[in-house]
Design goal:
alpha+beta
Length: 280
């Protein structure tokens, strides 16, 4: 019976499809760092997590993703990871901070399209939505946040109601996640139940830096199909690994277990992640 170490397997699968060169889609003009506090389980406040996110704004495009993913991409480019041996790639990957948020959101201002991209095991899936779908109600309420004069706005998105504070002092019609379309950078935004909270913690102008995206083979699909594919993988994540070897086992915590048992453990954990940012 073949023995497979889970961590090594997933790392090799990652590098098999995503260790390639990067391409520039724009030049960075502004770097906006947000702290995201989010709750995985809607019934358990102890399930709150924190992740620092980056919004890199260019002249005609922007990208929003985990700061740790940005650091990983920067290190991959500097080390030319696509030229390294497999064992060197694994060692390098183990030294890089891990991102819990895996998606990249790319907004194109000229085409008014938002691209949502995320890896599901070996494959990179991407779906496209119109960027101008937000119906904002701008209110009279104002306050100062981080020294910026801000104004309040509300909107409904993905089955949630959001309250945002934007600053006309920063004339950038963009914000964290998919949010955009206000006459100023979104400084703070949260849903009314406080499950997802984005707060600007850093802003600066940038020169001589590219917005880099991996040159991955992308499967363009619909949002509906993407959700179905992700759910299919999360329901039985090791089916893809073991489809050509049903007797394969995994080593975790010093014990050897079957793929079926590993799937059950994963499904138990997934039940605790019942509060996605988009409910529909």
């Amino acid at each position: 019976m073949k023995k497979l170490f889970l961590f090594t397997t997933l790392i090799l699968a990652h590098f098999a499809s995503h260790s390639q060169a990067y391409k520039s889609i724009d030049k960075v003009m502004y770097r906006c760092e947000y702290e995201l506090i989010y709750q995985l389980d809607s019934s358990d406040r102890k399930s709150q997590k924190t992740e620092n996110m980056l919004l890199l704004v260019g002249d005609s495009s922007s990208v929003f993703y985990s700061k740790n993913e940005y650091l990983k991409d920067s290190i991959y480019v500097a080390k030319k990871v696509w030229d390294l041996k497999p064992e060197e790639k694994i060692a390098l990957n183990e030294s890089i901070p891990k991102a819990n948020i895996k998606y990249k959101i790319i907004k194109h201002q000229r085409s008014k399209e938002t691209l949502f991209r995320e890896n599901i095991f070996r494959d990179t899936f991407e779906y496209t939505e119109p960027s101008n779908e937000f119906n904002w109600e701008v209110l009279d309420s104002t306050k100062v946040i981080l020294g910026y004069h801000c104004q309040k706005a509300t909107t409904n998105f993905g089955g949630r109601t959001y309250e945002a504070w934007f600053s006309p002092e920063l004339p950038i019609s963009d914000g964290p996640y998919k949010f955009n379309g206000l006459p100023g950078l979104i400084i703070s935004i949260n849903d009314t139940k406080k499950y997802y909270n984005f707060q600007l913690v850093g802003f600066k102008s940038v020169q001589n830096q590219d917005i880099l995206i991996p040159k991955a083979k992308v499967f363009k699909t619909s949002k509906k199909t993407f959700i179905e594919k992700k759910l299919e993988f999360e329901t039985a994540p090791f089916k893809a690994i073991t489809q050509n070897n049903s007797n394969m086992t995994f080593s975790t915590g010093g014990s050897e277990i079957s793929a079926q048992t590993m799937d059950k453990l994963v499904q138990t954990e997934l039940k605790k992640k019942n509060n996605p940012i988009e409910l529909k």
